[in-house]
From TrEMBL:
Top EC class, one word: hydrolase
Cofactor comment: Binds 1 Fe(2+) ion.
Phylogenetic placement of the source organism: Bacteria, Pseudomonadati, Verrucomicrobiota, Opitutia, Puniceicoccales
Protein name according to UniProt: Peptide deformylase
A GO biological-process term: translation
EC number in record: 3.5.1.88
Required co-factors: Fe(2+)
Role of this protein: Removes the formyl group from the N-terminal Met of newly synthesized proteins. Requires at least a dipeptide for an efficient rate of reaction. N-terminal L-methionine is a prerequisite for activity but the enzyme has broad specificity at other positions.
Species whose genome carries this gene: Cerasicoccus arenae
Spans through the membrane: none
Superkingdom of origin organism: Bacteria
Catalysed reaction, written as an equation: N-terminal N-formyl-L-methionyl-[peptide] + H2O = N-terminal L-methionyl-[peptide] + formate
């Protein structure tokens, strides 16, 4: 089922997610719905807060078609083919290592048509659980690391605009304010 994507200005986007404690069919269905929503929106990552649920879970899929893969990764010390690990469902993530930072243009499904440069760490180590509750460790760089950090931020109530420099943010302010106003109007009418 395709879920409604929350938009900037909705309070849920600033909520820290609660830990997932039940690994059951309901969680698996929620993950399937999140993936279906992410694909429908043509995204590569989606956090629970973006579908109005304050939980520690996000989904991602970096299978980018014919584009070259510009990242390296290991899951539990191995580097299986990308198609064997994607789509990836991440539950209760813990970022344990970060390495040097670099800028890259990001967008967000909760900020339609707003993109801007964000500086993030380039190498990440993350511990997480899968849908069965089993623990795993990922070490990755490049776009893989960036998506993990972007989605993990959502789980903490942090948005990509929070990482933008004033110089990057300034030209986007009008669009951001318009989106927030539009969201506020939607909440008044439908919320």
């Amino acid at each position: 089922m395709i879920l409604r994507v929350t938009q900037y200005g909705e309070p849920i986007l600033r909520e820290k997610g609660a830990s997932v404690t039940e690994f059951n069919d309901k969680l698996k269905q929620f993950a399937r719905d999140m993936l279906e929503t992410m694909y429908d929106e043509e995204g590569i990552g989606l956090a629970a807060q973006q579908v109005d649920v304050a939980k520690q879970i996000f989904v991602m899929d970096l299978q980018l078609g014919d584009r070259p893969i510009e990242f390296h990764y290991e899951i539990d010390g191995k580097s299986p083919p990308l198609e064997l690990i994607m789509p990836l469902v991440v539950v209760n993530p813990q970022i344990v290592t970060r390495e040097p930072s670099a800028p890259y243009e990001e967008g967000c499904l909760s900020f339609p048509s707003i993109r801007g440069e964000v500086v993030r760490d380039t190498v990440v180590e993350m511990q997480y659980q899968d849908l069965e509750g089993a623990s795993h460790t990922i070490v990755c760089d490049g776009l893989f690391a960036r998506v993990i950090l972007h989605e993990n931020d959502h789980l903490q109530g942090v948005l990509f605009i929070d990482h933008m420099t004033p110089l990057t943010l300034r030209p986007l302010q009008t669009k951001i304010k318009k989106l927030k106003r539009s969201t506020r109007d939607w909440i008044k009418h439908y919320g």
